[in-house]
Amino acid sequence: MFSKTCEYALRALIYITQQTKDGGRIGIKDIAAGIDSPEYFIAKILQDLSRKGFVQSAKGPTGGFYLDNISLNRSLAEIVKEMDGDKIFSGCALGLKECSETHPCPVHNEFKHIRNNLQNMLNDMKIGDFVDQLDAQEAFLKR
């Protein structure tokens, strides 16, 4: 559903949140291992997210990545839009350029409900919302 880049970005941000909840920071190697992603790929993604203010980083011996309160309250929808654009929330299920209410594709009327539900769900979910589930092992980022 999401691009690999978007999937890794979401997983990384959630993982960083869990691992730094007590005020620490976490490095690229640990993030890559924790979410089962290629280190080089996640480094590029996090560099981009850091530049755009979705994650914070610090250099030095106690450096690494962490999220501030503003980042913790960002919705998953914001991350998806930043990484993949908003086509998933507004595009045609069949990829048609001219699909609309007045010129619908064969699945338009059914898909618009799914699309709207997905957007509402991702808007309601904040990056910081998953720590308790992960800590209680009710949800997982890696298997």
From TrEMBL:
**Gene3D superfamilies in the record, alphabetically?**
Winged helix-like DNA-binding domain superfamily/Winged helix DNA-binding domain (1.10.10.10)
Q: Name one GO molecular function term.
A: DNA-binding transcription factor activity
**PROSITE patterns under this entry?**
HTH_RRF2_2
Question: Which GO cellular component term is one of those annotated?
Answer: cytosol
> Which PANTHER family does the entry mention?
TRANSCRIPTIONAL REGULATOR-RELATED (PTHR33221:SF13), WINGED HELIX-TURN-HELIX TRANSCRIPTIONAL REGULATOR, RRF2 FAMILY (PTHR33221)
NCBIfam families named in the record: rrf2_super (TIGR00738)
Q: What is this protein called?
A: Transcriptional regulator, BadM/Rrf2 family
